[in-house]
Amino acid sequence: ITIHEGYRPGLIGAISGYHGSIHSQIAGLGAIFEGLVATGMAEFMPRADNSRNKTWYAEQNGKIVGGITIDGEDLGNNVAHLRWFIIDNTLQSVGLGSKLIKMTMDFCDSQGFNEVHLWTYKGLDAAKKLYERHNFDLVEEISGNQWGKQVIEQKYVRLCKSVKT
Predict the structure, then answer these.
(1) Is the dihedral of CA 38, 123, 139, 102 positive or negative?
(2) Is this prediction's pTM over 0.70?
(3) pLDDT tens across 75-96, in order?
(4) Which residues of 44-61 are buried (b: 16+ CB within 10 A; e: fewer)?
(5) Among positive and negative, which fits the CA dihedral 103, 80, 53, 87?
């Protein structure tokens, strides 16, 4: 498995497809959720070259098998937004997710962001453990249906090293 930085043709479709498939199985999310991921990624990718933004994807045998993105512009106030983190089901629990999160947090720390925020939903226990291992704290839970089905949405926040010291 190799990790690459930046956009490549097919990235938006592959990552939004993983989100659609995996979150359909886990929580019954459907076309609304997958469409939101694809639309958000399509809006972001022309901005991916901004020095405050970064996207990475994992590839195995020429196939995209996961990805993660930092959007350093959309939340403002020197807050980075972790978005579209996903790993192919067959590669979960092999350390790829942890490697991607670490690279992403190292980038955020190097950029001098104050915080990193991410939104997810309750029930993704493996992801929750991964976020907590990388110093994210659960700061908010609300019932919502922005992703096409009622779920308990969760907001996690990580203070960056420049803020901690």
Answers:
(1) negative
(2) yes
(3) 999 999 999 999 998 887 778 9
(4) bbeebeeebbbbbbbbee
(5) positive
